[in-house]
Amino acid sequence: MTWRHFFTSSIGKKFTMAFTGLFLITFLIVHASINACIFLNDGGATFNAFAHFMSHNWIVRFLELGLFGGLIVHIIQGLLLWKQNGSSRPVAYHVNQPSKNSKWYSRSMGILGTLLLLFLIMHLNHFYIGTKIALYSGDQPHNLYIEMQELFSSNLIVGLYIAGVIALFWHLYHGFQSALQTLGIHHKRYTPIIKMAGTGYAVIICTLFALMPLAFYFHWIS
Amino acid sequence: MEHYLMNLTLKVWRQKNNQAKGKLETYQVKDISSEMSFLEMFDVLNEQLIVEGKEPIAFDHDCREGICGMCSMYINGQAHGPWQQNTTCQLHMRAFKDGDTIVVEPWRSGAFPVVKDLVVDRSSFDRIIQAGGFISVNTGNAVDANAMPIDKKDADNAFMAAACIGCGACVATCKNGSAMLFVGAKVSQLALLPQGAPERESRVLNMVAQMDKEGFGNCTNTYACEAECPKGISVANIARLNSEFLLAGLSTEEK
Lengths: 222, 255
Description:
- The complex is a heterodimer of chains A (222) and B (255).
- Chain A has helices at 3-8, 10-35, 45-56, 58-87, 109-127, 129-137, 144-151, 155-182, 191-217.
- Chain A is an all-alpha fold and 222 residues long.
- In chain A, helix 2 crosses helix 9 and helix 5 (109-127) packs across helix 8.
- Chain A is globular, with a radius of gyration of 20 Å.
- The termini of chain A are far apart.
- The mean pLDDT of chain A is 93.
- In chain B, the strands form two sheets. In chain B, strands 2-1-5-3-4 form a five-stranded mixed sheet.
- The N and C termini of chain B lie far apart (64 Å).
């Protein structure tokens, strides 16, 4: 089995999804932790210091390339698998009751992922592209805290961010334990722990993310 | 349980052959006993069709006691019908009530082409087994079964995997049309035992390669297969398939 055969096989593609998925899961911990600095309610001083570090440290800049690489592979492989899986049943059932045997979110990873992709395009447009243009053109660095404050005063933007977090929750809720099952980890003793850890992770990360726009919108932080 | 008779409306997939375009046809059956099996109800319907001078419905069946894996009906949107851990032949009409409408379709998968009506060609499963689902033994006298010590836990897990009857309900149910529960069970039953050890790596690589070649989809861990499997094969076997494939795939010397 050559490397090409390994990664183009059905299980190899699953491994790619699981590895990149777990990688993105670790990224979200960093992302949520740094953003949670806004809750210190110090006018964004700590948060902006971290944001400055993240955009100027060359190790972080290098790791960011890996992050985008992982994200792009996860998206492209996911979309290709979605298409391939769809074509494995050329004639659909007239009557089908998938709710009798599986959970809706486990069957909806493709659509949840697509919603997340749309959310991500909007999110990068809000908080990433502008700051990077400023960084490389030598303009005054953006004050992300102030930008968050401005953006999250809009009903529409807050609504879209909450919708994005809801899609993220269900994607992570299935994805965490699914990734470990794909890597071959299934054990009577540890699988229930993995499922609990996955649920806890999804709840904590998504609650933190949801609180960010809400905190600005309702002026819980100034 | 109380015995009762029922009248039913059946909507059954009729398809002349592999090339023809099929459609659902509606039939009425009367005075069906609650103690009949689902296939006996189909026998009654077919007798009726023969008397009317119509073509009887083709459906697969053999042992009619839940062990051969031939019966393969998708009943009211579920593989093998509404009962858990049960084959179509062991589904009894007491699962239904008078006046019910029952929709019956064949397994739907690109890798299981329809032969006729409710009969599908599952020889893709046979080709996966031929690719590695066996152990090579020397001919001659049978070896003493108890000469090789095997951990009771491993023997039990291998036996539970070996309960797979290869009916294809996992593929029929899976939203991705994936065969990984079947292949996982067939890899596991041999990987867990010392007799399977010599061909352990080539087995999993060859069986997965054949599975992919047949056009089955990719598992996304919805676990619908386990829920609908008539033998209750655990998705732990899919995890074992994954780890067997990972270890075999990474330890190979090919570049």
